[in-house]
Amino acid sequence: FTVSFKSTIEGSVAVRLTNAIGQTVYTSTSKVEAGRNIVPVSVDGLAAGIYNLEILLNGKSQTVKVSIRN
Q1: Cα–Cα distance, 46 to 18 (Å, whole number)
Q2: What is the rounded CA–CA span in Å between residue 12 and residue 53?
Q3: Do residues 11 and 57 lie in contact, with contact meaning Cβ atoms separated by under 8 Å?
Q4: Angle at 33 (CA atoms; ends 26, 56), nearest 5 degrees
Q5: What's the CA gap between 39 and 29, in Å, rounded?
Q6: Helix (H) or strand (E) holding 67
């Protein structure tokens, strides 16, 4: 799947996906530009379930729950 967001400045974004017991199952870092950005998140090999998706951008983080279905 992909994550879409807006940034007011250029920089980098870190994306982390953790499972229900807090284990990190995916991480990536990408460069971003001012404006709309789209970052791919690979879920190949992950079991279906609820995961926490954390996005760290410009020193601020946001976490949302995502559902992965096979």
Answers
A1: 11
A2: 16
A3: yes
A4: 35
A5: 9
A6: strand 60-68
Model pTM? 0.86
The values of phi and psi at residue 46, to 5°, are -85, 145
HSE at residue 8, side-chain half, CA atoms within 13 A, is 3
Contact in structure between 67 and 50 (CB atoms under 8 Å): yes
CB 31 within 8 A of CB 68: no
State which residues of the chain have pLDDT below 50.
Answer: none
CB atoms near residue 16 (< 10 Å): 19
Q: Which amino acid is present at 16?
A: R
